Amino acid sequence: MAVHEHAHRRTGFHPSAAFRRSRSASSTADSTALGAHTAAARALASLRILTGSVFLWAFLDKTFGLGYATTSGRSWIDGGSPTKGFLSSVAAGPMESTFHAWAGAAWADWLFMLGLLGIGLAAMTGVALRLAAVAGTLMMALMWIAEWPPARHLSDGSASMSTHPFTDYHVIYAFALIAVAAAGAGTTWGLGRVWARLPVVRDHDWLR
User: What does the alpha-carbon distance between residue 85 and residue 107 come to, in Å, rounded to a whole number?
Assistant: First the structure.
């Protein structure tokens, strides 16, 4: 009688297969992390550019009277004052009289316009983001005080129409500048890496 031996399938642990599975899982995790990092970097870069465009556009409109917030003939180059209209209309808050005194002053116009230009260019190009965050936060804080969202009524007794006692677009812009500076968002779609390699910037971190 012939005896036939049947090969039995071995189902034990295979180190090589486990290694391949581990390496595949690790590769997938790395790819996912890299994709998330890239998406986050691009999102922050988009926030940086959009925020910078707000400041730069305000500078261009007020300088040349492009017909949006500033009409032709009332621009800075036509002899108009970028600060007079806004500051003279302040009607609430602890610095109401101070802002009225500053309205239209040459030094106030120059500081305001240089601030808009500098912050806008820095944010859009991705350089000097820390300086832009400090300057932008200071500017937004002053404009927040000028509009004074906590007030329910203006100095003449009329409703202020404030929609929130603290947070308004000035606060959002300030935090956007702080966020992109803290995250170093100038390296994506910007000149952040080139800027950081300059000797003076390497020696002074606050210039980054």
Answer: 15
Query: Are the beta carbons of 184 and 130 closer than 8 angstroms?
Result: no
pLDDT digits (tens, 9 = 90+) for 22-68: 555 455 555 566 566 899 999 999 999 999 999 999 999 999 999 99
> What Å distances lie between residue 131 and 17, 53, 82, 191, 198, CA to CA?
54, 17, 23, 15, 16
Torsional class of 9: left (φ above 0), alpha (ψ -120 to 50), beta (otherwise): beta
Residue 2 falls in which region: left (phi positive, over 0), alpha (psi -120 to 50) or beta: beta
The encoded tokens of residue 101 equal 């005194």
From residue 157, alpha-carbon distances to 9, 93, 99 in Å are 90, 13, 19
Q: Strand, coil or helix: what is 159?
A: strand
* Ranges of the chain whose pLDDT falls below 50: 1-10, 13, 18-19, 25
Please report where in the chains the tokens 């808050």 appear, as a residue.
93
